[in-house]
């Protein structure tokens, strides 16, 4: 399976995260992340829940911790180990991004999926690692097996209870909120 490192910025939006991880559940790729990425995701999730949704701090912390625990449980081989020796060796403008490439190298990732493409200039990224936006990654991944991707979305949307969300509604969110037009078209073509 193709290993792809998911940066915090693509894991933070919940529906995008759900979609990308659902594609991994049906074995269309192997997700990777580091403890640092999960720590950053947990922090961002708490900020989102308290700031955007007004959820009390303690409940937000509990929900964020549960998210990280669930990700670790469901993808027990996704967390890259021993990336720290590579951290700080790539000469990125923002040293806070170094851990992402370090984890990609240690995890033997073929891609880094991120919204922050400018943070990872091609001359700083080791050969063999592609830096790709989530929309393009989703399209490339869905193209491998659109029927499996549809199965992933169908299974995912069946879990939405409050409020419920149909496959069509979810695909609209992917298209309108995340610009995943090509992935959505590929899925719709097999329906």
Question: How do the helices and strands line up, and which of them pair or pack?
Answer:
Elements (H helix, E strand, L loop, with lengths): L2 E4 L1 H4 L2 H12 L4 E3 L2 H18 L4 H18 L23 H9 L4 E3 L16 E3 L1 H11 L1 H13 L8 H12 L2 H9 L2
Parallel strand pairs: 1-2, 1-3, 3-4
Description:
By secondary structure, the chain is an alpha/beta fold. Helix content is 55%, strand content 7%. It contains nine helices and four strands, in the order E-H-H-E-H-H-H-E-E-H-H-H-H. It has helices at residues 8-11, 14-25, 35-52, 57-74, 98-106, 134-144, 146-158, 167-178, 181-189, and strands spanning 3-6, 30-32, 111-113, 130-132. It has a four-stranded parallel sheet. Helix 3 packs antiparallel against helix 4 (57-74). The radius of gyration is 17 Å and the shape is globular. The two termini are 25 Å apart. The mean pLDDT is 97.
User: How many distinct helices?
Assistant: 9
- Overall structural class, as computed from helix and strand content, comes to alpha/beta
Strand order across the biggest sheet?
A: 2-1-3-4
- As residue ranges, the low-confidence spans are none
Oligomeric nature of the chains:
single chain
Sheet with the most strands?
4 strands, parallel
Q: How confident overall, as mean pLDDT? A: 97
Using only C-alpha atoms, the radius of gyration works out to 17 Å
Assign a percent range to the helix content. Answer: 55-70%
One letter per element, helices H and strands E, the order comes to: EHHEHHHEEHHHH
Beta-strand content: 5-15%
Briefly characterize the structure.
The protein has 191 residues and is an alpha/beta fold. It has helices spanning 8-11, 14-25, 35-52, 57-74, 98-106, 134-144, 146-158, 167-178, 181-189, and strands at residues 3-6, 30-32, 111-113, 130-132. 55% of the residues lie in helices and 7% in strands.
């Amino acid at each position: 399976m193709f290993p792809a490192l998911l940066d915090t910025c693509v894991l933070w939006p919940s529906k995008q995260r759900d979609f990308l991880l659902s594609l991994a559940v049906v074995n269309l790729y192997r997700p990777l992340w580091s403890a640092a990425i999960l720590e950053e995701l947990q922090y961002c999730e708490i900020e989102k829940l308290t700031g955007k949704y007004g959820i009390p701090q303690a409940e937000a912390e509990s929900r964020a911790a549960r998210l990280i625990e669930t990700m670790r449980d469901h993808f027990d081989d996704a967390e890259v180990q021993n990336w720290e020796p590579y951290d700080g060796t790539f000469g990125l403008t923002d040293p806070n991004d170094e851990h992402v490439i370090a984890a990609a190298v240690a995890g033997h990732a073929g891609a880094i999926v991120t919204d922050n493409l400018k943070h990872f200039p091609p001359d700083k990224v080791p050969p063999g690692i592609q830096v790709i936006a989530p929309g393009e990654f989703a399209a490339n991944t869905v193209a491998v097996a659109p029927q499996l991707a549809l199965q992933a979305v169908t299974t995912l949307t069946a879990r939405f209870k409050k409020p419920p969300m149909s496959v069509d509604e979810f695909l609209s969110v992917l298209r309108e909120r995340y610009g995943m037009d090509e992935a959505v078209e590929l899925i719709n073509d097999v329906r």
